[in-house]
């Protein structure tokens, strides 16, 4: 079973910008409501496969997208992945 990660944002503008950039890069993503366990200023998050993490981080850094963090789901909630 493939593990998916969640990227949270502080603004809807940054979430939609990231969505556009990642889709352009042909990275499989899913835009969905931010889980209640993650504190973020935006109600939208992006879910993506964990094997795309390196590419996602590179795009976010190159394009200057502001994110709250990238999280992995564990048995007790969501754990922040250090960038």
UniProtKB/TrEMBL annotation:
Residues 6-72 form the Putative Se/S carrier protein-like domain. Pfam families: Se_S_carrier. This is Putative Se/S carrier protein-like domain-containing protein.
């Amino acid at each position: 079973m493939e593990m998916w990660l969640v990227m949270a944002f502080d603004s809807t503008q940054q979430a939609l910008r990231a969505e556009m950039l990642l889709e352009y890069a042909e990275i499989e993503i899913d835009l969905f409501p931010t889980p209640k366990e993650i504190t973020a200023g935006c109600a939208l998050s992006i879910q993506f496969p964990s094997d795309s993490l390196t590419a996602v981080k590179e795009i976010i850094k190159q394009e200057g997208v502001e994110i709250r963090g990238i999280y992995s789901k564990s048995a007790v909630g969501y754990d922040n992945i250090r960038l």
